[in-house]
Design brief:
The complex is a heterotrimer.
Chain A (H helix, E strand, L loop, with lengths): L1 H16 L1 H38 L5 E5 L4 H11 L4 E17 L9 E9 L10 E5 L6 E5 H7 L6 E4 L2 E10 L22 E7 H8 L5 E9 L5 H11 L7 E5 H8 L6 H26 L1 H13 L4 H35 L14 H28 L2 H5 L10 H7 L4 H12 L1 H25 L17 H35 L1 H9 L4 H34 L9 H28 L2 H9 L1
Parallel strand pairs in A: 3-8, 5-7
Antiparallel strand pairs in A: 1-9, 1-10, 2-3, 2-6, 2-9, 4-7, 5-8, 6-7
Helix pairs in contact in A: 1-10, 2-7, 2-8, 2-10, 2-11, 8-11, 8-15, 8-16, 9-11, 10-11, 13-14, 14-18, 15-16, 15-18, 15-19, 16-17, 16-18, 16-19, 17-20, 18-19
Chain B lengths: L1 H8 L4 E2 H12 L8 H13 L3 E5 L10 E5 L1 H12 L9 H12 L5 H25 L4 H28 L3 H6 L2 H16 L5
Antiparallel strand pairs in B: 1-3, 2-3
Chain C lengths: L19 E10 L6 E11 L4 E5 L6 H8 L7 E6 L2 E2 L5 H11 E5 L10 H11 L4 H14 L15 H13 L5 E5 L7 H16 L3 E6 L2 H4 L4 E6 L2 E7 L17
Classes of the chains: A alpha+beta, B mainly alpha, C alpha/beta.
Chain lengths: 604, 199, 258
């Protein structure tokens, strides 16, 4: 108990003394865990939303879609309805493939899109009762627009739309679980062919019939309720085996299939977020490790003090690790909360589903926590081990850790101009820090390459014939997420660079002051400090381009268009320039310190 | 110096010039000023007092530099007594101190000026000894030079204390400057030496 | 200033007149009420080849004076001339360039770069001055030989004793043959034997005609100089030539009572 109090007291005192470091660890872990939790929750949330929509709209267990009309189809569908497994059905109903044009208003311009028109009864039946979210249900001449579609078109109740040349008043907005989300409402094309992006509109049966009379492609569909909804797959298989009549081909979509289809829109989002969270976690480790390394001497001395008063190595390790662990767990909790709040917006980019997202699942919480703990342990492992291993007396007398002599780099640097000479020697002095800087830069470049890749994809719009009047929601989502992840990564990398430069500058201040007494100008010192970061950053940027291409290749479809190499090289170059710019400020500040004071401080 | 000369003879009987060479070797640069005459005057006095006997070498003219000197039993006793003795030269600071007091009282001179002049003199001496010491190889003479330097440095520190006391303008303080002030000064300066110049 | 790679004679510089000169120099630290005059209206001329010691109690401003002389600090008022150039008006950059060739510093705390060997430490200023690595190596080995550390050229400072480190630092200060060497309490961290080693080097420099300014409060160190300036409260209180024989000479130090 006593040692518990001691640990808590020591941890609190240390956090209070090093607020910036604590804040940075907290921030880094929060960002990383939030991103990871978001990535891992997407699929589950998407499925949960489908389930809720299905419950609210009496969603069918199986939807039978026939690419054709005619007696053969009608009898096939009738035999389905008579199947003993089927306890209720809705339809058959007409699906008409048409074009829809909005009239446009001040806010939203006129747009054209493919549309599938479902002819429904004016009073909904027991299966597939679309939930009206605003306005009312269909009536003659009045159309109800699916919510995801309406949102994309920018229309609401009271607007007019033209379908296949006929004008309809929008009388309601509704959602259904019987089709995939916008823009995949068609599910199959006419005659069983492929379908274009299209939205869903409900009309009365007679209006749909009238529409179908204008030589538009028409298919038939029927919604089925099964005795055992969980056995939908088995039912479909049994039916497919029994009915192999090519004249009356009927496609059966189970509700599970449709739920999975919803996540197609998230196909790229998940890797963006999960890989992004790894990279963010990695940057968090580098940043915090840099800060921790800057405090290693102090930590070692602290450990020596504790040992001197009789603390066991175990207790010392506990104190050191607890601080980081506690902060990381707080960051984890905050990150999970953020993920919980933002996940519905990301998991459901169209408005075709209703419901609330539940919190991240157990597996997600566990994964995010593992990430947080890993960050904490990796950041603190080295100082903790060193503090534990160092003998008490040595630890108490700990001076700044003795840099090793690196003859090769030193000899090499002698050939270079002064700033590079100083920079290379600073790099040689702290090779670990150089590695951190290189990793940090490589991560930034990887993210930038991924961002460029995402942005160079040719997206087919959701408008008529791929027109981008209606934007490709999946592409938009990918770009937005990639941009957000990249911004977070760059922000952490910038913090890392500034931290690393400042730590280096602080540790090297005596040496730099001596260099100034030997005649190095403040400009050369500042340039040297910058060079100490930019040199490893150069290696990192060079490694980052192929690594970025590799990561993108790992997670993207085969037909992915890679951005031009010149873009990627330009990105690496810009990253370097930005790194140089961000090192310049702390370097200049450090170089401006009066020499005499730096030297006296060292002597004291 | 008589005792030292006697003690040098304790090893073996010796010629006067030989004795002088040994003394000069032991004293190093400090012995350079010692001339031939001084050693013979001392030896003559010791002979007269019965501590030393003089044996003339046969067949040689009666010259001082041809005499071999040896200890008598009385001389040997005196050497033994000298070695057992723990007397130590007393640093005579009182005279300079009184010089300052008198100068101040009669307004003959500024005591601070006197101290400064004395300090310059001691520093010059220190410089000479230092240069000799740096040129001297390690050995008995170097140890002697080291001792002389340490004494000079102690005196310089005492002078610094005198300067502080007299420049404060406190006449009463002048009378208290004595042995105690010298002691304190030593400690103070020691502390100062450990301090880091703040710049 | 001296562009050739040849080793110039430290005595014969490019400029005649004093190597260092200060006029009406004032340096104040702090602001408002807490304002302190570290150096209070001081004039000084250091002729070529002179060894000058500055003595005084802690905080008398002697280190500040040295920093001002070497251009490490800027004066509040007054002029500082070094090797014939006025330095208090120079930009930091120009000052640094001047320091490279014209000033060598020796510090109490040695201030060697821990990750560089003795030789590499000495090479550093030569490289900073833009000379070839070959030339830097040549000078480093010459200078380490001169301070008696040729055998330890490849040692890291952590493996050298305090006295050896200071000798490396002196070698480094001499690396560019500066017209003036400034030493701030060079023996402050050293024991007697190491102090003697350093003093031997200073004596050697003095006889070679190197201009040298030493700030110290060790009388022994001051006694190696040709001239001693005493400072108190930022002002000079005494200026003594130590050359020339004392009134009695060395032998006079022994009382000969026959």
């Amino acid at each position: 108990m006593g040692s518990f109090v001691l640990v808590v007291r020591l941890v609190l005192a240390d956090v209070r003394r090093h607020r910036a470091q604590a804040a940075m660890l907290l921030l880094a872990v929060t960002v990383a865990t939030a991103t990871m939790a978001l990535g891992l929750s997407l699929r589950g949330v998407s499925e949960a939303l489908y389930e809720q929509t299905r419950a609210a709209t009496a969603g069918p267990d199986v939807v039978a879609l026939s690419g054709d009309t005619g007696p053969a189809v009608t009898s096939a569908l009738a035999s389905l309805a008579d199947d003993p497994e089927v306890i209720a059905h809705h339809g058959p109903y007409r699906i008409v493939y048409a074009d829809l044009t909005t009239h446009g208003s001040g806010r939203s311009p006129a747009v054209a899109s493919g549309v599938v028109v479902h002819g429904f009864a004016e009073t909904p039946g027991t299966v597939n009762r679309p939930l009206v979210t605003s306005g009312g249900w269909v009536r003659p001449g009045g159309a109800v627009v699916e919510r995801g579609f309406a949102e994309a078109l920018g229309i609401g109740v009271g607007d007019r739309v033209t379908i296949a040349g006929r004008s309809y008043l929008v009388v309601g907005i509704a959602v259904t679980a019987a089709t995939s989300i916008y823009p995949w409402a068609a599910q199959i094309g006419p005659y069983g062919g492929p379908s274009d992006s299209s939205g869903l509109v409900w009309l009365t049966r007679s209006d749909a019939r009238t529409l179908a009379g204008r030589d538009l492609p028409v298919t038939t569909a029927m919604d089925l309720k099964l005795r055992d909804p969980a056995a939908a797959e088995a039912f479909v298989e049994a039916f497919s085996d029994a009915h192999r009549d090519p004249a009356a081909r009927v496609n059966l979509h189970t509700w599970q299939f449709m739920a999975t289809q919803d996540t197609v829109i998230l196909r790229n989002s998940q890797p963006i977020l999960v890989v992004g969270s790894w990279l963010l976690g990695f940057l968090a480790v580098t940043g915090v490790a840099a800060l921790a390394a800057g405090r290693a001497v102090e930590q070692t001395r602290r450990a020596g003090l504790l040992k001197a008063v009789g603390a066991t190595p175990g207790l010392i390790a506990t104190v050191l690790v607890t601080e980081y662990l506690a902060l990381a767990l707080v960051g984890d909790a905050v990150g999970l909360a953020i993920a919980r709040l933002t996940v519905p917006g990301i998991a459901s980019p169209t408005a075709s589903r209703i419901g609330d997202a539940a919190g991240p699942g157990g597996a997600t919480v566990a994964a995010a926590t593992v990430l947080a703990v890993t960050v904490a342990v990796l950041s603190t492992l080295r100082p903790a081990l060193r503090a534990m291993r160092t003998a008490t007396v040595t630890a108490l007398a700990a001076a700044a850790h003795q840099p090793r002599h690196r003859p090769l780099l030193t000899a090499l640097s002698a050939l270079l101009p002064t700033p590079l000479l100083l920079g290379l020697r600073l790099t040689a002095r702290r090779p670990g820090r150089a590695v951190l800087q290189a990793c940090s830069t490589a991560t930034t470049v990887i993210a930038t390459v991924a961002l460029l890749t995402v942005y160079s994809q040719k997206e087919r719009g959701y408008g008529l014939n791929g027109s981008s009047v209606l934007p490709n929601l999946r592409g938009e989502l990918d770009r937005r997420l990639m941009l957000a992840v990249t911004i977070l990564l760059i922000a952490l990398a910038v913090v890392n660079t500034v931290t690393l430069t400042w730590t280096t500058a602080m540790e090297a201040r005596a040496n730099m002051a001596v260099a100034r007494t030997l005649g190095a100008t403040p400009g050369q010192i500042a340039a040297g400090l910058s060079a100490a970061q930019v040199l490893p950053a150069l290696l990192g940027a060079m490694a980052g381009v192929p690594l970025g291409i590799g990561v993108c290749g790992l997670f993207s479809a085969r037909n992915t268009i890679m951005p031009p190499v010149s873009w990627m090289l330009a990105a690496a170059l810009v990253t370097l320039l930005v790194t140089a710019a961000f090192t310049a400020l702390p370097a200049r500040l450090a170089a401006r310190r009066p020499v005499a004071r730096a030297l006296s401080a060292e002597a004291a | 110096m008589q005792d030292a000369v006697l003690a040098m003879l304790a090893k073996e009987p010796s010629y006067g010039y030989h004795l002088r060479a040994r003394l000069r070797r032991a004293l190093g640069p400090l012995g350079e000023s010692m001339n031939q005459g001084q050693i013979y005057v001392t030896l003559a006095r010791l002979e007269k007092a019965g501590f030393v006997v003089c044996e003339r070498s046969d067949g040689l003219p009666d010259r001082a530099d041809r005499k071999v000197y040896a200890l008598t039993p009385a001389g040997q006793r005196r050497v033994a007594a000298w070695l057992a003795e723990v007397g130590w030269p007393k640093p005579d600071l009182a005279e300079f101190h009184l010089k300052l007091v008198a100068a101040a009282a009669a307004r003959l001179a500024d005591p601070v000026e006197l101290v400064a002049a004395q300090r310059r003199e001691l520093l010059r001496r220190l410089r000479e000894v230092q240069q000799a010491a740096l040129a001297e190889p390690e050995g008995s003479a170097a140890v002697l030079l080291e001792g002389v330097m340490l004494r000079l440095r102690a005196d310089l520190r005492w002078l610094a204390a005198c300067e502080r006391a007299w420049s404060s303008g406190d006449a009463g303080g002048a009378t208290t400057v004595g042995a105690t002030a010298g002691d304190e000064d030593g400690d103070e300066d020691g502390d100062e030496n450990d301090e880091v110049e703040g710049g | 200033m001296n562009g050739s790679d040849a080793v110039p004679n430290p005595v014969a510089g490019p400029v005649a007149g004093p190597v260092a000169e200060i006029r009406g120099l004032v340096k104040e630290h702090g602001q408002g009420q807490g304002r302190v005059r570290a150096v209070d209206d001081v004039d000084l001329e250091v002729p070529r080849g002179q060894t000058l010691a500055v003595m005084g109690p802690s905080g008398c401003g002697k280190s500040t004076l040295l920093h001002l002389l070497g251009g490490l600090e800027r004066p509040t008022r007054g002029e500082v001339w070094l090797a014939g150039r006025r330095v208090d008006t120079l930009s930091e950059r120009a000052l640094a360039r001047l320091r490279r060739r014209s000033v060598g510093f020796v510090f109490q705390a040695f201030h060697l770069m821990e990750e560089l060997t003795a030789a590499e430490n000495v090479e550093l200023p030569v490289l900073l001055a833009g000379r070839s690595p070959r030339e830097a190596r040549r000078r480093a080995s010459l200078l380490l030989e001169r301070v008696g550390l040729a055998a330890r050229a490849r040692h890291l400072p952590s493996r050298l004793s305090g006295g050896q480190r200071q000798r490396v630092a002196i070698a480094r200060a001499l690396a560019n043959e500066p017209p003036i060497v400034l030493a701030d309490e060079p023996t402050g961290n050293l024991d007697t034997a190491a102090t003697l080693d350093v003093l031997r080097i200073f004596e050697d420099l003095r006889t070679a005609g190197q201009t040298l300014v030493i700030v110290t409060h060790d009388e022994r160190v001051a006694a190696t100089a040709d001239r001693l300036v005493s400072m108190r409260d930022g002002m000079f209180v005494d200026d003594t030539r130590l050359t020339g024989s004392s009134s009695r000479g060395l032998g006079g130090l022994i009382e000969w009572e026959s």
